[in-house]
Amino acid sequence: MSSQTLFDPLNWAASLLMTMNGIFGIVCNGIIVHSFATSPLERTSFNLICAYRAVLNCVILSWGFIGTFVPLTIFGDTLFPPVYHLIVITCVNSLYVGLQYCGFLVAINRFCAMYFPIMYSTLFSLKLTIVFTFAIFCYRISRIVVELLQSIPKKCFSVYSSVDLNWSPYLNPECREKYANVVDATAILLVVLILLNIATFVKIYLFYKSTELGSRDIKEKMKRNKIMFTQTILQDLTYLIDMLFTFRLSGLFTSRVWTFISGSFIWESVHSFDGLIMIMFNERLTFLKRSFFSSTANPSFAIQMTKTVPSRSYPAPID
């Protein structure tokens, strides 16, 4: 326990912000998980991926931030041994990558729904989506085990600093190899995601434009799909912003306030706002969606369209 951190106003302010942000994120993501678990109508392929994302967000926020970083910020770096720092940081970073994989899975889900409607129900049935998400989880767990087995013998302990108010890898160049090109790889992945989502949105736009529905129906359906497109873009861009702050912009200033914002607070906010974004665009939670988008389309449009447009030309619903 460090008396320096106990009486440091910045440490207490950072702890309070991380706690409030973490609780907010856990509540938002918890609502998504509860909605999926309690409502049979919510149990679609797309909502399953969202629920999986929400669970990972809750683990990162509760264990990584509230359970580890907040106590370390108040009581000092020595509250937990270095190996525990390593275990927590390795786990939450691996789950973070798992969330990026989920984003890619969502993009493929929507892309297949629009371009391969006949195959969609086969490729993205609920059972097969469970297999996909479980495979992602198993792979990330295996990566955690491998990284820990490689790092612990070398004493490559990534640690959280109560002075800098963020985590950092060990200074040994041999230990920093696993973080090389992380930003570039993430940027490439997000570019692919954005291209997939743009292709999906173009298909949606061209499809509705070619139908013989009334102009009012077309307008309302376009608004709904623009909102869906916005959801995906927002979720994808938040991860790129976080990686840019962590690995590029964090070096612009050396003040403790900046290292906290760029290294910890923005990262935590990604997981909190991911839950908020999913709530805003969740079909069951339309009361929130209407608060942000007063002209949001009726959730029953997907059902109405199946009655109006021949099934042969209609893209699969984006589940």
Automatic annotation (TrEMBL):
Signal peptide: none
Name of the protein this chain belongs to: 7TM GPCR serpentine receptor class x (Srx) domain-containing protein
Entry's transmembrane regions: 12-33, 54-74, 86-108, 120-142, 187-206, 227-245, 257-281
Pfam families attached to this UniProt entry: 7TM_GPCR_Srx (PF10328)
Keywords in alphabetical order: Membrane, Transmembrane, Transmembrane helix
Cross-referenced SUPFAM superfamilies: Family A G protein-coupled receptor-like
Keyword Membrane: yes
PANTHER family given in the database record: 7TM GPCR SERPENTINE RECEPTOR CLASS X (SRX) DOMAIN-CONTAINING PROTEIN, SERPENTINE RECEPTOR
Chain ranges of the 7TM GPCR serpentine receptor class x (Srx) domain: 21-282
